[in-house]
Amino acid sequence: MPFPRLKVFILASFISGLISFPQNIIGCGPMMDPYDYFTSFYSKALVDIGPSKPYFYTNLLTFYDDWDYTEDSTAFINDALIAEWQTYVPGASKKDVVDFVYNRSVNEVKQLQAAMRQPAATIAPALKRNGMAMQLLQQKKTEAVQYLLLAKAIEPVCVSPDPWSDGPKRDSAGINQYINQATAAWQKTTDAFLKNKYAFLRCKLAFYNNRFNDCTRWYAEGFDDNNTSAVKTMALSYSAGANFKSGKGKEAAYAFSKTFAQTAPKHRKAVFFGFLWATDQCNLSLLDAYCSIARNPKEQAMMAAMFGLWGYEYHLPVIEKVYQLDPQCELLPLLVLREINKVEERFLTPMLDKQPGSQAFYYSWNEPDTAALSDAHVQDLIAVLEKMSNNPAANNQSAFATATAYLHYMRKDVTAANNWLAKAKAMPASNAVKDQQQMVGLLIQTASLQAMNSSNENALLPQLKWLQQQAEQSAEFGMFYRNLMAQVIAPAYYQQGDLYKTVLAYGLADKAMKPDSSGYIYYGYTANAIEFLQNKLNTPDIIALYDYLNNKPATAYDAFLMSNNSVTKDDVTDMLGTTYLREFDFAKAIDWLKKQNKPTLLTSEQYNYKTYKTTMLNVNPFHDYLNDWQRYEKPLSKPMSKLAFAEKMLSLQQSIDTASNNAVKSKLYYQLASGLYNMSYYGNSWMLMAYNRPNSNWNSGKYDAAWEKEYYAVHTAKNYYLKAYELSPDKEFKAAAYFLAAKCAQRQIARPDYDWNNYDAYESNMKVFQKKFANNAMFANFKKEFGSTKFYQFAYSRCSYLRDFVAKSK
Asked: Whole-angstrom Cα distance, residue 49 to residue 530?
């Protein structure tokens, strides 16, 4: 469908010039997902998601749907207005009315007008194909065509500029002529339908000609309380804008709140922008004064509720006010949803984060004391929700009672949570509310357990299976499932010392996430199970995990825990193999790596800055090189596996014992040393020992694990190169082995960590490090013993540290 030329029938375009306001963002960090940065178990399906989505709570966007880039090609259509035209022009389809009202030009309407006067007049093919045009012609609705001609003619002077331009220059006198035409037609016509249309045009033209007092006065003249026409709401939005432009914020806010209530949900966001301007971004200090001018409690409740749709602060007083004014206010459930999300962000999330073994599977940041600050608010919110739940006059009683149970769970009051959940279940409820009740029931059940033993696991199983099924259908429940496994179930195992089940709980969390209806998946999410396995478990725990996975499930819960898990036996055997590779126990590494169904290959991604393409390189773990930047030269034609590497290293070790002479032994030691060096942080096969390699790391002399001493300081590689040097009868070979031992010695010089508190000390320590690094203690003997060899010349031409050393020693 072409972009509509005519905006006269859309919601007041005055609002399109307003720009959005950022909310009070306190927790911004890299890659924080605005839809997934705190722990939540409370469903947005408890409200009507479509019209409510812009106002869902997030502290990281202006509106919740700011990242919703899906386009609705029919979003601009005012359905109520189109329906009125269909009634007024019998026989015209909705499609044809939309096409005529929004897409036909002034010239085409003139052709239709001419055809009414002269049947032989030529009209465009598009008009002949349009059912509304033909019905207007056949029914001789000349007055309607005259109105449409005026409405389309004024469109160029009634277009709001975008925020980045000055907009069109308007001819005030010309607009006044249009106003006069509209006023004359409004006074003359006896057609009620068209009278409303002309009344609307008067308001619109007055607004765009800065005749704001006339705009509000003509709205009052043209539309009484009994008027239900579609253009009444549109005219009201112009009256609201006129009040705002006149400095009458209170009156503007009231008019915008009435417009909001009368506007179709898909167009409400534009109205809310106007409300934001009129209320100084929903400044709560204005709430009582502004609501006081509304004519009845229902209107007061709507205006108060709109104050609550914006901002980061707790809005419990707003909820209380809305509830007192109108317990059935349509926005009340949305306000409760927003408030509970704030409590989840500031109370539940930090509480769960403090548990040993809790892993938030999203990136976030919280003030350390937010839980303590929020407890009093949670208690106050509980009191209000209990009152609302007990009031038969309130809609959504069951939802409010369910929320009350959830809040009691957050405060670890299991008895009160169970009591309120039972009350909620006894009330009529929608399917969405019933799902939320089951979610809260599961949380309460987990909080009731003293230990995660076999009996309690099996008691949880039906509820966990239900949640897993929900997660398959819903991205939101996928997030709930992930949060439960990672921040409730996994910590329970961790705290009782069941580390292998902790890993598997994280593994279920890893697999929980599904894209939402638009294909979006929460990007802040990371897989924690494998990371926990690789960095937190010791060898006995990993073996226990392997035995658990390798045996037939003893219970239905065990089968559930193993199924659809991100952790596989191959992951475990790879970890065990890697554990022994770190210890250079190649025989045991082989035993475990042989158990893999799919071997782990030694490959590395390489980005080509000339072709802008990434390729996979089969690294050569026995490649020897002077400079570390050469480590990816001489790749293999086929990738080597971890298992094949371990078998080769064991074969080299065993061959040393049976070698016939020192020359052979020296070459075996040299190969072993090259393999060990490539296993290190500096080599091409670092993935034999580590699972990630930050580019900024270096040997600091401080190690989080025993294996890191070899990984960063390459002691054994140095010793093996020296063995090769000592045993070889070939002076050129001895030179190469000695130089590579010297390179290892250089890696053993500890680099100081950056000192955030004392940069001067850090800078001083770095100078000492750089001096030691440049003046390799082994260079003097290398020059003395091998200065006449070809290898010395080769190394001298390629190693700047050696050249600098030689230059300084002359």
From this structure: 35
* Two tokens, residue 729: 């009868």
Residues 373 and 350: their CA atoms lie apart, in Å, by 11
- The H or E element that residue 614 is part of is strand 613-618
Provide DSSP, 565-611: -S--HHHHHHHHHHHHHHTT-HHHHHHHHTT-SSPPB-EEEEEETTT
Task: Evaluate whether 37 touches 296 at the Cβ level (below 8 Å).
Answer: no
Question: What averages of pLDDT result for each successive group of 10 residues across the chain (810 residues)?
Answer: 36 38 37 85 94 93 86 80 95 95 93 90 91 94 96 87 58 94 97 97 96 97 95 96 96 97 91 96 96 96 97 94 96 97 94 87 58 83 96 92 98 97 97 98 96 95 96 92 94 94 93 63 61 88 94 95 92 96 97 96 90 92 94 95 98 95 97 98 96 90 93 98 97 97 96 92 93 92 96 95 88
Residue 171 phi/psi, 5-degree rounding, is: -90, 100
Structure tokens at 530: 């494998």
Compute the CA torsion angle 381, 386, 389, 393 (nearest 10 deg): -90
Which residues lie below 8 Å from residue 486, measured CB to CB, with a gap of 6+? 358, 359, 360, 361, 505, 506, 509, 528
Q: Please choose, from the candidates 276, 286, 343, 278, the residue with its C-alpha nearest in 3D space to the C-alpha of residue 311.
A: 276
Total Cβ atoms within 10 A of residue 260: 26
Render the burial of 699-718: b for 16+ CB within 10 Å, e for the rest. beeeeeeebbbbbbbbebbb
Distance (Å, whole) CA 466 – CA 204: 55
Count the Cβ atoms, other than its own, within 10 Å of residue 25. Answer: 14
Give ∠ CA 712-714-717 in degrees, rounded to 5: 155
**Burial class, 323, CB count within 10 angstroms (exposed 0-12 / middle 13-18 / buried 19+):** buried
What pTM was computed for the model? Answer: 0.85
Note whether 427 and 398 are within 8 A (CB): yes
Q: Which two tokens stand for residue 107?
A: 């010239």
Q: Which residues on neighbouring strands pair with residue 603, listed in sequence order?
A: 618
User: Dihedrals φ, ψ of 603, to 5°?
Assistant: -135, 160
d(CA 207, CA 213): 9
Q: What does residue 616 show for φ and ψ, rounded to 5 degrees?
A: -100, 125
**Distance from C-alpha of 255 to C-alpha of 245, rounded to nearest angstrom:** 13
Q: 695 Cβ partners below 8 Å, 6+ apart? A: none
Sign of the CA dihedral with 721 first, then 725, 727, and 728 last:
positive
CB 402 within 8 A of CB 424: yes
Residue with tokens 């499930």: 553
> Pairing mode, if any, of strands 603-608 and 613-618?
antiparallel
From CA 56, how far away is CA 332, in angstroms rounded?
A: 13
Is residue 615 within a helix (H) or strand (E), and if so which, with residue range? strand 613-618
The overall longest dimension of the chain from CA atoms, in Å, is 119
| Type and span of the H or E element at 113 | helix 106-117
- Bridge partners of 614, per DSSP, are 607
> Residue 578 and residue 539: Cα distance in Å, rounded?
11
Residues belonging to the chain: 810
- Give the span between the Cα atoms of 152 and 676, in whole angstroms: 80
Give the separation between CA 157 and CA 149, rounded to whole angstroms: 14
Q: Name the region of 23 (left: φ>0; alpha: ψ -120 to 50; beta: rest).
A: beta
CA neighbours closer than 13 Å in the CB half-sphere of residue 49: 9
